[in-house]
Amino acid sequence: MSLDGLDGPVTQNEIDLFIGFLEQPNRLPTTALNNKIADKQPGQDVEALGLMYEVTQNPQILDRMITYSDIFLSLRNDPVNGRIIWTGKRELVWCTKPDNGTLSGYAGSEGLDTAGHIAYTAYHILKTPCLWNENVTDNDPHKYGATYKERALTYVTEMDKTIKTYYLNYFIRENDSIYNPSSPAWDKLGEMDANTSMPWNRQQMMTNGFLRMAECHEILGNNESLINKYLNIVQVSIDWMVRNFIPVKTKNGLDAYRWTYTFNVNVTIAEEVSIHALYDIWGMYRAWQRKDKLNVNFDDMVKLANTMMYIINIDNKTVATRVDGTSDNTTPVHLFGSWAFYAEFIPEWYNIVANINMKNLKTDPR
Fold this sequence. Notes:
Layout: H1 12-22, H2 41-56, H3 59-74, H4 110-126, H5 148-170, H6 184-189, H7 200-220, H8 224-243, E1 246-249, E2 255-258, H9 275-289, H10 298-312, H11 348-357
Antiparallel strand pairs: 1-2
Helix pairs in contact: 2-3, 2-4, 3-4, 4-5, 4-7, 5-7, 7-8, 7-9
């Protein structure tokens, strides 16, 4: 891929090269193991495709999203012949651990991030009614629906099943807060203690699924109670995280935030800038985008932007490995594209993120 410049609209050359890059067959996943279709490359590819579709409305990009999402859905655990997990059932989840290890029965927050990617595809289809009655160009290899609308409805129906039968049953408390399951069977996995709060990044993986599914139901105009349930889970998670942000000052005296990995008094080290903080700030920004329905404070977004611009950013060329400006080692940090969203609050931040990541452009579109 290449970039024609950081200013102005996306060029046709950039669009063509982006499509060509994402249409490489070796980018498509064959497994859900190791979070492959959640926060790893294929999952992030769908997010990149969705953003480009918002900008271009290019149907070839939407078709590629559908190819990914079909594969993601096909990799979900089979309820008849699939893996029995910690609940003692063959749940409609994505198994992200090998089936011969101690964590073979695990299925956690990553699955709702995958659901969010699939729902993001459904959302774009549903936002494009001129395509609804047209046949998808792939000839429906998985029999998920011949037309675009049929495909979107399959995605929505199946993601609702996963959420209702698994995540609402085991991970969501009566007040809509997100916790690890309380079952001793979950505890035996040894992945995370039962009945403990879910770390912030994992919560925001889950809110991705809840928010995107709420948006699909909004377009369809159905199931208002479910929409409200999904949105309230997002709101509770965001409120909880913000309450635990620690106010700090930047070197130039601006208000900013420091935070840790989870709601736990024994966890005092600052959050990692890598994939962990990425999901924290991504969840906040997604909620901000839906401020018509969710309560997200502008000042909180500015403080997070200040953290990025004046604490994480070291010299406009490198970034710290933790959100308090400290670094554990000299390994370069990859700032995924979602960090650039905060240029809405500090415009200069966009060029900094772009330039830091320019060296990654040939191998990673994120």
